[in-house]
Amino acid sequence: MTTYTACGTTRAGHVFVSTIGTPIDDPKVLRESDAIVKAAGLPKLRFHDLRHAAITLLGAQGVPLKVTAEIVGHSDIRLTQNVYQHVFQPAKREAADKMNELLIEATGGKKKSGFATAFATVRQAGPVN
Known about the structure:
The chain is built from 6 helices and 2 strands; from the N terminus they run ββαααααα. By secondary structure, the chain is mostly helical. The chain folds into 3 domains: 1-45, no CATH class; 48-86; 89-121, no CATH class. A two-stranded antiparallel ribbon has the order 1-2. Helix 2 packs antiparallel against helix 3 (65-72), helix 3 (65-72) crosses helix 4 and helix 5 (89-106) packs antiparallel against helix 6. The longest helix is centred in the last third of the chain and has 18 residues, at 89-106. The protein is elongated and about 70 Å long.
């Protein structure tokens, strides 16, 4: 496997270069990233999906959106948030559980409802939620 160097951006505009500073052949990068993903036992991903995953994971770790946007080179945090950052199922469950607590409190604790949790955590068809 080839060793690549992440170097910020070179004068020629390359983010990744070989160890001697030359541009990397795109098909070679894709073949090697596919091999890494397969070796890790992950489902097949497009190379660009790694960008979505990184942004989502940064958000899940509490990294401020503005910081994430700057890391990935977005000038507007709305792009980062609306296109790239996805919500994990556990975060939906946590929000729904908080809503359940509020509803139980509003009824004086007389009724235990799991409606909010059940509704918010049903996986919708479509893109990654």
